[in-house]
Specification:
With 397 residues, the protein is of the alpha/beta class. The chain is 54% helix and 7% strand. It folds into 2 domains: 321 residues, Beta Polymerase, domain 2, CATH 3.30.460.40; 41 residues, no CATH class.
């Protein structure tokens, strides 16, 4: 049965698809496809997303013992990725060891887990930061450990002394930095809260559960991390490969100015690990509320790169009912469209639930100041124009 699906604008364009094809094609056609891609590409003009995957090109050239004028440059990119990632992996290991001492389990997410469990090579691809997940009950203790280890919070709320356990209901992560230019993103929710909490509950300051359904399912399906890059620790976990597959698709296919099409490579490499339980993939997509993401991704991978999926799985996937609210949320998140209210409901909740102090007049007076700070505006006076441009962009989409 033929299905028509409009892919998100964040999916790879034809030029990017040619590079992906070079990375995933069979060995016997690699040399020809690499040569064709090279002749059509100005190496010095390679975009950020493609640059991030050049280490995998180095691995293929090395494995097939192909020597090319570009080999040294591509190898140099791999070495840069290896060094940068080793620094981050070492910092994450230090954090994990310290958390293990006080029995705080940590789940490695996205790039960290992929390097350890899928690629098994510290230089296989660049990591923008280190994403780790802890249980909401362990957020405050983990933040204390990070500060003890010299990490500085990026979000100013951690300086203000707000109860982060309560605040964590509407925020999915906090970022921390450490020299030399290393970043860790501490998560307690798998997905951004704006995508999982109703606007009604936020505006009326309802009590929001500490764990969302996707979080509950993730913790149910965590596995011990099979690491070859660092010393294994019992408290370090990873998502199941099936949940990791859904998570990678969801995050990679989202609207992003960097167009990180590496999600295609990551998803294919996860599948190549073998022993994928496709019924578990479907269960993950349902429990994590990412059915539409997986529908689009599977159709795309099959159509563009001839990736095989069991027909029974595809039939069940496309027969899975999806609510109108889920489709609307998906469209706003990945189809280059804006939510009408953006993140304003979450900021409203954050301010009136946790940060508003003083008399009612003082609270109302300080709210625009809070918004301008949250939206990183130079001053409160810039707020009206910012809001006008946001709404103009929404209605012009």
């Amino acid at each position: 049965m033929t299905r028509h699906i409009t892919y998100p604008k964040s999916f790879p364009n034809p030029i990017e698809e040619k590079f992906i094809d070079v990375l995933i094609c069979p060995d016997d056609v690699f040399a020809n496809r690499f040569e064709k891609w090279k002749n059509e590409t100005i190496f010095d003009d390679i975009d950020h997303a493609t640059l991030g995957l050049l280490p995998l090109l180095h691995k293929r050239l090395s494995q097939l013992q192909i020597v090319d004028p570009l080999s040294n440059r591509v190898s140099g990119v791999y070495k840069i990725a290896w060094v940068k990632n080793q620094i981050l992996l070492n910092e994450v290991h230090i954090l994990s060891t310290r958390c293990a001492e006080v029995h705080i389990p940590i789940v490695l997410l996205k790039g960290l887990a992929l390097l350890e469990s899928i690629y098994k090579d510290a230089g296989a691809r660049f990591l923008a930061d280190g994403d780790v997940l802890v249980h909401p009950d362990d957020v405050q203790k983990t933040i204390s450990i990070l500060k003890e280890l010299g990490w500085k919070p990026i979000d100013t709320i951690l300086v203000s002394g707000v109860d982060t356990m309560s605040f964590g209901a509407v925020v999915h992560s906090f970022g921390f930095k450490k020299e030399p230019d290393v970043t860790i993103e501490l998560h307690w929710h798998i997905f951004h809260t704006a995508n999982t909490v109703s606007t009604f509950d936020l505006f009326f300051l309802k009590n929001i559960p500490a764990l969302h359904e996707a979080d509950i399912y993730t913790w149910e399906k965590t596995c011990p991390l099979e690491t070859v890059l660092q010393k294994p620790l019992a408290e370090i976990k990873r998502m199941s490969f099936e949940s990791m597959f859904v998570h990678v698709i969801s995050h990679g296919a989202g609207n992003n100015s960097w167009r990180p099409f590496r999600w295609v490579i990551d998803a294919i490499w996860i599948m190549r690990m073998g022993n994928m339980d496709w019924s578990a993939v479907l269960e993950s997509a349902v429990r994590m509320n990412r059915v539409v993401d997986v529908q689009q991704a599977c159709m795309y991978l099959s159509a563009r790169f001839s990736i095989f999926f069991p027909q029974t799985f595809l039939d069940q996937l496309y027969a899975t009912p999806v609510s109108r609210a889920s489709r609307r949320e998906h469209k706003s998140r990945v189809a280059n469209q804006l939510l009408l209210l953006g993140n304003f409901p979450a900021l409203w909740y954050r301010y009136w639930k946790f940060e508003a102090v003083g008399t009612w007049f003082e609270k109302i007076k300080k709210f625009p100041v809070f918004l301008s700070s949250a939206w990183r505006l130079p001053h409160v006076g810039a707020l009206p124009r910012f809001i006008y441009l946001k709404y103009k962009a929404y209605f012009n989409v």
